[in-house]
Structures
1.
Amino acid sequence: MSKLKIIARLWSHITDLQLYIAGNRKKSLEQIEKELDLTEMYCRPYADTDDVEEA
C-alpha cells in the first residue's frame, strides 16, 4: 500500500475516533481497533526506511 493511501486511512481512523468520542458511533471501538491493526500492518514495510528523498 502506498504511503498516501496509508495517510488517508489514518485520517479515516481519526474521523472514526472523533465520531466515537462524540457519541455518533457508526463503528464500535473493536472495529476501529481492528482497522488500526490492519493499518499498522500496512506501515511495517516503511518502518525501517528513511524518509529522506533525494533531490
2.
Amino acid sequence: MRSFAITFEKDKYGISKRIEFEADEPDYVFQLLQREDVGRQGILWEGEKRLGSICRTRAGLWSIDR
C-alpha cells in the first residue's frame, strides 16, 4: 500500500482539511471526494510529492491538473 493525502484550503465551499489514506493507486481518492461540493479544489499528494490539483466541476466530475 502507498500513502496519499488530499489537502484543501479554507474557501467558500468548506474548511481547510487534510485527508490521509493508503491505497494501491491514487484513484481511490475519488471515493473519498464524493462528499465535497462543486467548485471545491484540492491538492493530491503521495508522501511529499505533489501529484496534482483536483477540482470538482459543475457537472459533478473531477478535473485533474498536474
3.
Amino acid sequence: MGMMVTARRLDSAADEVRYAFGFEDRFDRVLIIDPHTLEARAEEGDFDGAASVITAKIVKMWRSSGEFPTRAMFAG
C-alpha cells in the first residue's frame, strides 16, 4: 500500500522555511528546513518516513528551480 504526503509552504524566512504537511490533505504537522544547509526537522520531533519523503521532494524541487515550492506532493 502506498502513501501520499502533501505539503504547503507556510513561511519562508532567511533562516528557515516552514511547511504544513501530512497524509492526503491533512496538514497536521510542521516541517522546518534550513535554507542554507537543507537540513530538515519535524516541529514535533518525529522525523519519520512521511517527513523524509516530503523533504526529499521539496529539496529536489528547490534544486530544479532555485526556489522553495509553495506546494509539494509525494505519492509512492
4.
Amino acid sequence: MIKDIDQLYVAQTDNKVLVYSTNLKDFVISLNSVAKNLKPYMFYYRLFKKIDYMEHVAEDGRKFYLQKVI
C-alpha cells in the first residue's frame, strides 16, 4: 500500500465505485457531477469526523454509499 495516502474516499452504487479521491474537497466536487442535490463540503467534513460510512439519495432516487476507507 502507498504510505503517502492518509485518506481515501469512495462513492459506490450498484456495487460499482463511481468516484474516489484522496482529498475530501475534490471528492465532493467529483461526486456532485454524478449525484445531484449534495450538501456543502463542510457538512461532509464534519460528518466524516464522526462516522466513516453514510448513504446519499440522489434526485433520481439512486442510493450512493459514501465511505472513508482510510
